[in-house]
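Table S2 (text version). Query chain:
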Amino acid sequence: MPHGSITAVIAAPSTEVFAVFHDYNRRLEWDTLLKAAYLTDGWESAQLDATSVCVGRIGLGGFAVKTKYISFKPPFSAAIQLVNQPPFFAKFAATIRHRDLPNGTSEIEYKYNFTARPRWLRWLLHPIMTLIFRLETKKRLGALAAFFTPIS
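Corresponding structure-token output:
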């Protein structure tokens, strides 16, 4: 099962970063991976058991990924798990951890794992999906950091 971890330093405390990261009304202000993001099934805020839908940009397939929060501990961590069956994903889960650093900054760590489908193509899909997912996650965490960087 492919897995990885990407970190970024953000020029804001973890409480602020956690709040923005999990605010689906503001997600598209910084998230470079998505063309739509919203909570679903009657949920109005991110929390334990809440479900969300994130729709990728057309260049990345444009498919919808529905996830459920299986852990939610502001401002320290949250974890999600895939609940639908989008193309190419049999399983997906991620944990997002936040920790404060000196001088009012914080670090975000995005840990993920997935299993591709169909099974008979995993030998090909796993390395390709790992590369794309790693690059896109670095890009989106960089965009999150830029969102919090003061304009001079």
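Notes on Table S2: Helices lie at 14-21, 122-148. The beta strands are 3-10, 34-40, 51-56, 64-73, 77-82, 89-100, 106-116.
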